[in-house]
User: Fold these one by one.
Assistant:
Number 1:
Amino acid sequence: MYALRRAALQAKKKLRIEISAPIAPPAELTAPLKAHQYRCVLTPAADTTMDSFLEHFMINASKGLKAIQNHMDKKGLTESLRVIVQPASESFEGVGAALYKTGCRDITIDLTGAWAEYPNLDPSKITAALQENAAWYVKQILRNTLFRFEPIASLFNAIYLGSPQYRADKSGAEWLAMDSDGTVYPSFPWLGKKNFALGALSNPTGETMQQDLFPVGGALQTPQCLSCWVRGLCGGANAAIHFARTGNVNTPDPLWCEGQRQWIASAVAVFNQVSETGVNFSQLVASMQPQKGHLSLRTAAKALFQDMFSVRPLRENDAPMLVGWENWNRAAYFACSNHGVLTATLYDREMDALHPIEFIREMIILRKDGSPCGLIKFCPSPDKKLALAWLYLHDAALYEKKALRNMLKTLVAEICRKIGLRCVLVPVTQEESALADALCAAGFVKLGTEREALYQRGTYRDVDTYGYTADNYKESDESA
C-alpha cells in the first residue's frame, strides 16, 4: 500500500484507493434477488488514516451492509460507498428499488462480470430486466430523487451529452488490476486468467506481458461495430464479454449485439421522459465520484436537510423562476456577488445550469413537497482554508424556522470538516435582518461592516460580513 502511494507521488499522480469486498445479500431482499452476488466498494475519506479505515473495515465487513453503513459510512470514514450486484441469472428485475430501500444511494449492476462468469445468459431477458430497472429509475428522477444507478446513469449521461464514445473498455490502456500475488491484469474482469496477465511486480522486465491484445479496441477497431447505429453509445462494449461468448476479445456475439441495440434503443426512448426536466446528468454522475478536497454540496447536504428541506442542482427549466427571483432583487445573494447583475436573462440562467462554473457550487433549496424556496451557494478556496457563501430564501419567514437554522449549522460544520476549511464568510445587507438572525443562530458571528461597499438606489450602502469558524480552529485559537 505504501509502495503504491510512493510510486504515485513520484509520478505526480493522485492515488485513489478503493477497497472491495463481498458482502451477504441484505436481509430485506426477496429470495430471487438474494441469489445474486453482492459486494461493496469503499473509498477511504481524505482525513481518515489507512490503519483506522482497515481496522473498522475488517470488523464490519463480515457483518453485512447495514454494519458498514452504520459504523463506517455514517461516521465519515468513507468518501464513498458503492454497492455492486452481479446478476447470477436474468431475473434481476427490481434490484435497484430493493437496494434503494436498504439505504443504498450508489448502485451498480455489474453486467460485465455477469457475462464473463455466466456467458450463456439470454441477452433478450437481460434487456428486459434492464428496461424494468431503467423505468423505475426514471420515476425516481421525475420525483426529484436523484442518486446514481449504473450502468443506467452513465448511459443517460452519454445520451444527454450527445458526444460519441467509441471505446467503452479501457482494459490494458487506462485500467489495470493486480491480484494478491502481484500479477497485473488488463482490468478487474480478467483477474485469474493467467493467459491475459500483463506481467508481475516480481518480473518488471515484462517478458510474459500480453500487450498486443488491448492497446487497440473499441467500436472503431471492431469490424462488426462499424455498421452498428449504437456504436457511439456502446463503444464496442467490454472485451471480457466478447471473450466469454465467442472466445475472441475482438469478436462480439451477434445475439449479444442485438440485445445491446434493444437495450440502448429503449434507454433513448425512456430518457425522453426526463429530457425536458433539465436534470444535468453530468453533475449527477460527477457528484458521486470520490474526489479528495472536492466539495459536493448536494452530497454533503442531502443527509442534513432531513425531512423539512432538500437540495438539488440547478436545471435548465429553472431559468424563468430564477430570473423572477433575481431581477431587481437587492438581497446580498444577488447584489454582493460578481455573478449577480440584477438583470438576469433566461439565457444566463439556462447556461448556469448547463455549464456551471467549476469553483462555485450552487443549489436550489426545496421544501418537503418539492417546491423551490431558496438558493445556497459556496465558493471554497481550500488552499486559503476559506469559503465565501451566500444564502437566499424567497420567503423571508423561512429564516425563522428552527429546522432551517439547525440544518445550516450542521451543513456548514460538515463542509468545513470535509474539505478542511477554517472560516466561512457570508455577506448580509442592512435590510436582511432575518438572514442575520438566522446566521447568528447557526453559529455565525458578525465580523465587521464594509462601509459604503454597495451602490443601490443612488446611494452607497453598508454591507455586514458574518463569519463561521470551524470548531477545531476555535480550539487552537483559544489555546494560543
Number 2:
Amino acid sequence: MALGCRVFVLAHHRKTTERALSGEQKTKEKLSRNA
C-alpha cells in the first residue's frame, strides 16, 4: 500500500516538474521575443 502510494506521489511530482519546466521554457521564449 505504502509502495503504491509512493509510486503515485513520484509520478505526480515528475508530472508537476515537467509542467513547471515547460512553463519556464515558454516564459523564457516570451521574454526573449519581447527583448
